[in-house]
């Protein structure tokens, strides 16, 4: 199990985005913990569905913020969101077919969370801070 914890290095400086990111890390952590504890395939599938639905919610939330602020990188950022959701769906498919385990998925989710947050979301937050 990977030790997935919230760290202030993931803060981007926008209260709503930061809050949603903290919830997302908590959900990924639940999957990581479940990798060692959950024996029910149904429970594991439900945890993964929760993460997927939250990711969809969060991406729409961020995209609404970008639209409201006329963020010039909106299309690029949205494409990244779409790519991440497609990649997550692929990983979930592989899990359902027993090609990968929960540890693999939790590591994958945390790695893309950390990379996306510290690159794409940070640029958005800086733009928003400059506008205000």
Question: Could you spell the SSE succession in H and E letters?
Answer: HHHH
Domain tally: 1
Proportion in helices: over 70%
Distance between the termini: 41 Å
Number of strands: 0
CATH architectural label: Up-down Bundle
Short description, anyone?
By secondary structure, the chain is mainly α. The protein has helices at residues 15-37, 41-69, 74-96, 102-131.
Describe what this molecule looks like in 3D:
This protein has 132 residues and is an all-alpha fold. The protein has one domain (12-131): Hemerythrin-like (Four Helix Bundle (Hemerythrin (Met), subunit A), Up-down Bundle). It is 80% helix and 0% strand. It is built from 4 helices and no strands. Helix 1 (15-37) packs antiparallel against helix 4 (102-131). The model has no long low-confidence stretch (mean pLDDT 91).
Topology:
Layout: H1 15-37, H2 41-69, H3 74-96, H4 102-131
Helix pairs in contact: 1-2, 1-4, 2-3, 3-4
Characteristic terms for this protein:
132 residues; mainly alpha; Four Helix Bundle (Hemerythrin (Met), subunit A)
């Amino acid at each position: 199990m990977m030790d997935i914890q919230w760290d202030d290095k993931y803060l981007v400086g926008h209260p709503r985005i930061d809050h949603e990111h903290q919830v997302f890390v908590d959900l990924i952590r639940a999957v990581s913990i479940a990798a060692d504890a959950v024996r029910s395939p149904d429970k594991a599938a439900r945890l993964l569905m929760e993460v997927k639905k939250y990711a969809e919610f969060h991406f729409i939330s961020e995209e609404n913020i970008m639209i409201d602020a006329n963020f010039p990188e909106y299309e690029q950022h949205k494409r990244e969101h779409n790519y991440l959701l497609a990649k997550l769906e692929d990983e979930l498919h592989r899990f359902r077919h027993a090609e990968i385990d929960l540890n693999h998925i939790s590591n994958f989710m945390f790695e893309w969370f950390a990379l996306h947050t510290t690159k794409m979301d940070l640029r958005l937050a800086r733009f928003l801070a400059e506008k205000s």
